[in-house]
Backbone:
């Protein structure tokens, strides 16, 4: 299995981890959305390659859905939201990118440490995909934890979901119906979040989550 | 006889890089000027500058010590030796086993150490600012580079550059995300170490934004010529390194005939020219960053290098 | 039979110590004491060197001293011989240095008697072959060095350092005592031969490892047990600081190696290596970061010792991990790297402390912010210090690079380790090692650049004089050895081979001295090679060649003028970069995470004549999170028990009576 097929799968799955790191590194909102589009694009390629080598045609559909929704529609929508909110030039105040990336590297190591011994019997490709997918999920969670901006939170959530799709594709594919329903639920989630974003902005003049925290503290007092 | 040829080829390589280094700097400068729609100086301008500086007298600050006068020669020697140990047109030269990649990184460290000391020697504030920032940059760039060395050595099983280059030509390499990460890390380190935009500006005239130029502010005459030549050598070294690791095609093998060496040299020059084009394009399309963004930039390089090594540890053991 | 002689010489040192009590007041007393110490150390050095190079078999000797049923066992094997070389080389050079430096001592009667005793204690630790002798010698070493730390006890900071040192030393010895107790087992076989022959159950073995880490680690300065070290080492006179930092920490490492690699013997579990490796990595990184934040030259060097101890422990941890997986060839490389670094560090750290001593006598200052420009009045000291600084920053072609290179090579062959945790730990530790190496260079650019370069920042620095001949000779001996070990590393590696073989089931590195050009080839099939000699030759050729050509063909004219500084030269030396400002970028990048470094600027409004103030806040995480709570708890507990001091006599009697009854009850119930 150590042929070119494995190498390319490894490369693409690893590429998703790297794209997650790019998300962690990027602190400019519109660039963050672009990196997310890249993240989704790598996912499309990874899933497409899995479809090719597993000879599983329904995975092509998965890849297609990911391409249309995640690589095109959602980034475009987010761009529009950000522009209408007037925060597309905003720099997020990120304290210590180095520390975040260090934490991210630790998470990747953790993901591999957890996954590889557990899946000792599966074939190499699935093992590695699962490990990388878990890493992408963890990195998405990390992004959601460390960022204040609501839009970054959304992107963290979406990248996490990309990781789930990668896991599903690597492990023998998931049923198409599930995939489509997930895709739609994500889209609906986006719409709901978008609406909320505008509502939040109306109330607080900001989409910075810290503003909401201070509001809560004010209420508690 | 073979030994004499070996010495000869090794000598040729040392001379070649010494002669090519200013040309590369001039090439990048000219390209950048053209990209900005200026005519720019001739490609040969760095040679003229060097000769002019060499003939001028040295204006030495009163508070300078012997270290200030010795440092340029030391820096030049360390960089020349380091650059000469990177395979250029041919691998497996006579003395290629003298130092491996780790030792080359450390030799760069030697040069940097003395350059930073020279910056502090006269006792001016600009020299200090340059030295202090240079060491901050190096404290992240050097480990990032070493992580890249880890990745390579895990793949190739050695840190000796000729063997690495030979390994990279075989089919065992495959397509690996770790290599891509290593390449990215090396490029980021190369940009930082050579004081290029976005980390530092080689053509700056604003004192407070300078790092490398601030350190060498007090140098003049032949000392400055040596420092400038060393800087060119360093740029050449990094491009050669990138070429030898990530594009080792066309390199002559040890003991090949003169024709093979000549072919290797032509391809090597072409690689350098291409690298120069990429560098000029990159530099003109990006803005310089604040000094305290540099640590994030290089921290990212370090993390990418570490990630590459980690991923490789994993895929090796599958 | 060199062992009786080897034993006799430390005894002679003890006698010299006793003599020094009387001689200290005499003007030439110092000369005599240091002269004899120098002579004894050289003889010991020669004997140990002879033993190691001739590859003699271990010799033993039992004297009817100490515990009546045990006697005092002594043994000279390759490991002891190697460390004897390290100790006595350091001792000889420190004595030579002190021949000049000791003249400036304010209180010779507080230094002279203890200096030979300290040397004797360290030698006896290395020769001891039973637990009792070992511990007695160890305590002797600790107490005599404590007395030296307290030589200038009038300074309250020194008194505090001495107190902390005493507490940590007692704690360390306690841990070692327990470790030996576990090793000896219930039958009480306290001589090392019995311990070596016996086996320890895995649980107890792990406990012994932990206790050895606590005991030897606290002496060596392993994080988080390092807190006393940067206070105590600088407090002593400089030649003693050199001995403590350069040599005594090595004796501690000897203790660790003796217990874990020799006495514990075979059944090594893989996670031991992991623990030691992780501790080593953290120690290396934190040590150099602490060092970068210091402005006191001696304290900077002491913190830097912590870093180097970390590097040595990285090598030892790798060796343990390899041994646990029966990869003895790789373990040999890791052990060689660690031992090589032991030697190297003893060379350059002693050199740097001696250099600091020379600066201290010339200026009376340890604070770098008040030094500067010393290269002009003290060019030779500056040159020696520069060589030491370059060596410790792991710059080729000096010796520090070789041991770090070997450590890196050992890390690079580690992916063969089967355990997952180690697979991740090793590259992470490799990154830490790389970071600490790069930071060490920054640290020593600061140490040398601020102290010796630039312009003098105080009148004391401006009026300094070059130091005396003895001190210079001592420093240049060490500097020469740094260079030699750097360009001829193959010979050192061959010298270390018997030691490695002893600790590693007789697996060792291939002989290096018949490689062409004395190239260092640690593992044949890995093909990574390094040749310090050729690097040195090439650098010398190209440097001198360039200088000669340029002076001959182009120009050799020099014009002196004021500094340019972009057209705004400032005559006031306070405008130079200081140690604090040099470290500022690194403090901002690393210190804000590790030390929660914060900078506060109070800028009065325009028109207000108060000066603007700039304040840096640093927090020591180890002290504040680790030691301060323990100290608080101890204080709280003891103040709780304080009332016991004010009881009536009847209460005391009833306490004694109660304790007796409880003990008797305990005995009844235990049955």
Residues:
């Amino acid at each position: 299995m150590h042929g070119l097929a494995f190498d390319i799968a490894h490369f693409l799955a690893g590429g998703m981890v790297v794209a997650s790191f790019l998300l962690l590194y990027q602190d400019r909102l519109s660039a963050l959305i672009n990196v997310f589009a890249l993240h989704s694009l790598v996912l499309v390629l990874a899933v497409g390659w899995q479809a090719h080598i597993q000879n599983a045609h329904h995975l092509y559909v998965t890849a297609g859905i990911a391409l249309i929704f995640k690589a095109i529609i959602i980034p475009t929508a987010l761009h529009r939201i950000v522009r209408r909110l007037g925060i597309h030039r905003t720099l997020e105040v990120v304290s210590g990118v180095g520390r975040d990336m260090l934490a991210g590297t630790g998470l990747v190591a953790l993901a591999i440490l957890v996954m590889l011994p557990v899946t000792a019997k599966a074939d190499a490709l699935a093992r590695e995909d699962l490990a990388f997918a878990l890493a992408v999920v963890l990195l998405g969670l990390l992004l959601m934890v460390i960022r204040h901006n609501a839009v970054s939170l959304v992107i963290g959530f979406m990248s996490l979901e990309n990781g789930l799709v990668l896991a599903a594709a690597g492990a023998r594919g998931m049923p198409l119906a599930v995939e489509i329903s997930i895709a739609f639920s994500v889209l609906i989630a986006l719409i709901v979040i978008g609406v909320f974003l505008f509502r939040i902005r109306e109330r607080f003049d900001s989409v910075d989550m810290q503003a909401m925290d201070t509001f809560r503290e004010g209420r508690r007092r | 006889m073979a030994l004499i040829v070996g010495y000869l080829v090794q000598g040729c390589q040392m001379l070649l890089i010494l002669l090519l280094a200013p040309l590369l700097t001039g090439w990048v400068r000219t390209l950048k000027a053209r990209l900005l729609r200026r005519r720019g100086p001739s490609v040969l301008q760095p040679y003229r500058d060097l000769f002019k500086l060499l003939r001028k007298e040295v204006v030495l600050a009163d508070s300078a010590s012997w270290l200030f006068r010795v440092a340029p020669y030391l820096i030049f020697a360390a960089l020349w030796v380091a650059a000469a140990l990177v395979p250029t047109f041919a691998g497996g030269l006579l003395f290629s086993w003298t130092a491996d990649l780790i030792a080359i990184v450390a030799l760069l460290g030697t040069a940097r150490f003395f350059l930073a000391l020279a910056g502090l020697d006269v006792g001016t504030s600009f020299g200090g600012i340059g030295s202090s920032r240079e060491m901050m940059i190096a404290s992240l760039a050097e480990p990032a580079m070493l992580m890249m060395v880890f990745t390579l050595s895990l793949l190739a099983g050695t840190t000796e550059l000729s063997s690495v280059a030979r390994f990279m030509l075989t089919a065992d390499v495959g397509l690996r995300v770790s290599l891509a990460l290593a390449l990215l890390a090396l490029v980021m380190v190369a940009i930082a170490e050579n004081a290029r935009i976005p980390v530092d500006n080689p053509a700056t005239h604003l004192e407070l934004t300078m790092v490398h130029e601030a350190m060498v502010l007090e140098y003049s005459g032949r000392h400055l010529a040596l420092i400038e030549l060393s800087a060119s050598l360093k740029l050449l070294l990094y491009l050669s390194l990138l070429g030898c690791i990530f594009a080792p095609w066309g390199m002559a093998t040890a003991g090949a005939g003169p024709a093979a060496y000549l072919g290797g040299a032509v391809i090597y020059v072409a690689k350098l020219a291409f690298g120069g084009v990429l560098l000029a394009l990159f530099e003109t399309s990006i803005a310089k960053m604040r000094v305290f963004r540099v640590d994030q930039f290089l921290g990212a390089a370090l993390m990418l290098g570490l990630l590459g090594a980690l991923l490789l540890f994993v895929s090796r053991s599958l | 039979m060199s062992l009786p002689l080897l034993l006799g010489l430390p005894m002679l040192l003890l006698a010299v110590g006793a003599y020094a009590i009387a001689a200290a007041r005499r003007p030439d007393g110092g000369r005599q004491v240091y002269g004899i110490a120098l002579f004894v150390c050289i003889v010991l050095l020669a004997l140990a060197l002879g033993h190691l190079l001739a590859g003699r078999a271990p010799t033993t000797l039992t004297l009817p001293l100490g515990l009546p049923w045990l006697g005092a066992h002594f043994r000279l094997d390759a490991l002891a011989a190697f460390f004897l070389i390290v100790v006595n080389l350091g001792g000889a050079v420190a004595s030579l240095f002190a021949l000049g430096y000791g003249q400036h001592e304010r209180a010779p009667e507080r230094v002279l008697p203890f200096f030979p005793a300290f040397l004797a204690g360290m030698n006896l630790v290395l020769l001891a072959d039973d637990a009792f002798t070992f511990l007695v010698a160890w305590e002797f070493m600790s107490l005599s060095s404590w007395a030296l730390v307290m030589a200038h006890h009038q300074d309250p900071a020194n008194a505090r350092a001495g107190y902390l040192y005493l507490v940590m030393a007692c704690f360390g010895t306690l841990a070692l005592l327990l470790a030996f107790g576990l090793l000896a087992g219930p039958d009480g076989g306290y001589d090392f031969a019995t311990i070596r022959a016996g086996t320890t159950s895995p649980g107890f073995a792990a406990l012994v490892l932990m206790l050895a880490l606590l005991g030897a680690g606290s002496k060596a300065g392993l994080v988080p047990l390092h807190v006393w070290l940067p206070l105590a080492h600088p407090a002593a006179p400089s030649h003693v600081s050199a001995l403590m930092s350069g040599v005594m920490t090595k004796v501690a490492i000897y203790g660790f190696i003796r217990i874990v690699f020799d006495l514990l013997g075979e059944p090594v579990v893989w996670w031991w290596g992991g623990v030691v490796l992780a501790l080593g990595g953290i120690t290396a990184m934190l040590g150099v970061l602490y060092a970068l934040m210091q402005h006191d030259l001696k304290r900077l060097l002491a913190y830097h010792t912590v870093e180097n101890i970390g590097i040595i422990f990285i090598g030892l941890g790798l060796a343990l991990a390899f041994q646990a997986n029966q990869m003895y060839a790789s373990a040999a490389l890791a052990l060689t790297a660690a031992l090589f670094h032991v030697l190297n560090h003893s060379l350059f750290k002693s050199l740097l402390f001696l250099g600091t001593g020379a600066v201290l006598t010339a200026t009376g200052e340890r604070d770098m912010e008040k030094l500067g420009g010393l290269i002009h009045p003290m060019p030779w000291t500056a040159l020696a210090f520069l060589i030491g600084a370059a060596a410790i920053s792991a710059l080729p072609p000096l010796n520090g690079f070789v041991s770090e290179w070997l450590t890196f090579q050992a890390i690079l062959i580690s992916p063969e380790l089967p355990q997952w945790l180690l697979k991740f730990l090793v590259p992470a530790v490799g990154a830490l090692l790389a970071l600490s190496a790069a930071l060490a260079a920054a640290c020593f650019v600061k140490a040398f650049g601020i102290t010796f370069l630039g312009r003098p920042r105080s009148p004391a620095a401006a009026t300094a004089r070059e130091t005396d001949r003895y001190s210079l000779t001592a420093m240049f001996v060490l500097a020469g050895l740094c260079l030699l070990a750097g360009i001829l590393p193959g010979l050192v590696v061959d010298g270390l081979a018997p030691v490695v073989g002893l600790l590693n089931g007789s697996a060792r590195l291939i002989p290096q001295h018949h490689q062409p050009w004395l190239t260092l080839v640690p593992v044949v099939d890995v093909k990574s090679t390094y040749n310090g000699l050729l690097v040195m030759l090439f650098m010398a050729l190209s440097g001198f060649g360039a200088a000669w050509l340029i002076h001959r063909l182009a120009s050799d004219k020099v014009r002196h003028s004021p500094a340019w500084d972009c057209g705004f030269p400032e005559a006031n030396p306070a405008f130079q970069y200081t140690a604090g400002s040099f470290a500022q970028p690194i403090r901002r990048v690393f210190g804000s995470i590790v030390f929660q470094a914060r900078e506060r600027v109070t800028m009065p409004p325009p028109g207000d004549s108060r000066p603007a103030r700039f304040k840096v806040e640093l927090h020591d995480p180890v002290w504040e999170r680790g030691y301060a709570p323990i100290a608080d708890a101890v204080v709280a507990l003891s103040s709780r028990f304080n009332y016991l001091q004010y009881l009536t006599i009847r209460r005391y009697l009833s306490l004694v009576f109660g304790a007796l009854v409880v003990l008797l009850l305990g005995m009844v119930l235990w049955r």
Summary: Chain A has a mean pLDDT of 78. The radius of gyration of chain A is 18 Å. Helices of chain A lie at 4-25, 29-54, 57-85, 97-118, 124-146, 150-170, 176-204, 209-220. The interface with chain C takes residues 96, 98-99, 109, 112-113, 116-117 of chain A (CB under 8 Å).
